[in-house]
């Protein structure tokens, strides 16, 4: 009765489609708030990593390495249980976007650092020699040049973050995967394992595939434009 | 009054002692040319003048103000411009935007004022028709002339040139030198690091010869090219002048 081709199983999913839509809504909400946190952390720590102050660089390095070299599941458990036992229970929703935001922030920081470091040193020097302060230099001269390097990998990071909302399952989240699991194990709804997970997967795919396609198209057109520019330059020099 | 004053400036890169107790004064309106073999500290010397390199010790005074890490942005903005070996134009902006950015954002000129200024200096460097193109579409010589126009747009008393022709094709060097010769007739204080001896002889009020992080000899072009005192200078000129 739980078979992949069982009409009853598929009918049940259609009947309980609200559960999946709720899961999707929760996943997107969590991802959106986490994205804002990740961007703020990413910009702060990414800029710190490219500053010439050793203390700032070290702090940024520690954040990135600790977050990138421990499992996100552990970070979520830590935030949820450790904070709960110390009497500051943040609740499952807050744990969700906080943990995901802090985790993704480390990857954002690396993406932003790499984007800034891709701008030639001479651009920083020209700006300083003209008397631009740090903020103006970044805003008018450096960021506009690094944004095209930053956007494709940043989009990939966002795709990963949307998928990672499913890790909230470990602390009993209300995201798409967690609700799918509750659905297939539920007393009244249980049983439709294969169809339910397929639906869950299709929903994730429908959100993530367009995003990663945008990212790779972006990257390719960027490469082509660079090649073109190089050819143009050679042509004018010849 | 000295426009630029370096007092006992030392610079280390790690263990490498690249500037050894350099003392140098440049007067208002003076054209100073710094020559010497590569690795002698010429570039580091001019880069200390606008604190692109912070001296390890010693004092740098620009137009009466001693530079430090706190005031450098403000003092440099008001007094000094720089022309680089690699041009360093902003590739994401048109030539016109390159020229108007600092006047508009730093000197708070109106768009109209800044553009009038830009067209005026584009005319000076002979590239008025290139205002709306992007820098990467231009030849090296043209890019460097644009970079000079950008420096002029800030209307500072001092312009520093760090090997402005070293990255250029031989046939475009002269067009850049011609622009610089034209500038030398104005009352701008110019400090030029170069290997162009013809230019040095024609334009310099004073030539400074550096080797191994020290100033070995200084004097007028006549003194320099006719009867230099130091063996090191004679050796260098013997190699470089055919």
Features:
heterodimer; A: 238 residues; mainly alpha; 9 helices; 82% helix; B: 242 residues; alpha/beta; six-stranded mixed beta sheet; 10 strands; globular
What's this model, at a glance?
The complex is a heterodimer of chains A (238) and B (242). With 238 residues, chain A is an all-alpha fold.
Give an overview in words:
The complex is a heterodimer of chains A (238) and B (242). Chain A has nine helices and no strands. Chain A has 238 residues and is an all-alpha fold. In chain B, 38% of the residues lie in helices and 26% in strands. Chain B has nine helices and ten strands. In chain B, the strands form two sheets. Chain B has a six-stranded mixed sheet, with helices on both faces. In chain B, strands 2-1-4-5 form a four-stranded antiparallel sheet, with helices on one face. In chain B, strand 9 (206-211) and strand 10 (214-219) form a beta hairpin. In chain B, helix 5 (140-153) packs parallel to helix 6 (170-183). The longest helix of chain B has 14 residues, at 111-124. The model of chain B has no long low-confidence stretch (mean pLDDT 94). Chains A and B meet through helix 6, helix 7 and helix 9 of A and helix 2, strand 6 and helix 3 of B.
